[in-house]
Amino acid sequence: MQGSTTRSREILFAVGGWCSGDAIACFEMFDSSSNEWKAAASMSKRRCGVGVGILNNRLYTIGGHDGVSYLNSVERFDSHTNQWSKEMAPTSSCQASVAVTVFDGCLFVIGGQDGISCLHLVENSTMDSCCINREKRLGAAVAVLDGYLYAIGGSDGQCSLSTGKEK
């Protein structure tokens, strides 16, 4: 199974992925205190290559591929209600293999398999484009350190990329 993972406190999340030749919508949580995986509510859409980020204790899934087409939808999981909200504004284009991080209290979505070259900012349930990233990049890792956002590695679709830095 191929999917995205992210960690909040001591819980590891497995979100979507690819299994038996198709994209899946499953969502599971591993609780390190009980050493158990638990199934939670599935997403409304099947997603592989999905971007995942946590902002204000809510998990967001961004884009991905449903096995037929690229997605621009965003879903938000509320662990208190075990429900997904689809009321989120979509990204400006359909994309998979995005990188996601939190920077200055906002969720940033970087790159994607369809050649997106701008960052997308999620703030107050809206998507705004801000052209900060200067390179097309898919499958990168992202991190924030000392007030800078770093895009690490990935590919432009033809060759591997080095690290990029934005303030």
UniProtKB/TrEMBL annotation:
Keywords tagged on the record: Kelch repeat, Repeat
Entry-linked InterPro entries: Kelch-typ_b-propeller (IPR015915), Kelch_1 (IPR006652)
Claim: Repeat is one of the keywords in the record: yes
Matches recorded under PANTHER family: KELCH PROTEIN, KELCH-LIKE PROTEIN 28
Name recorded for this polypeptide: Uncharacterized protein
Organism expressing this protein natively: Rotaria magnacalcarata
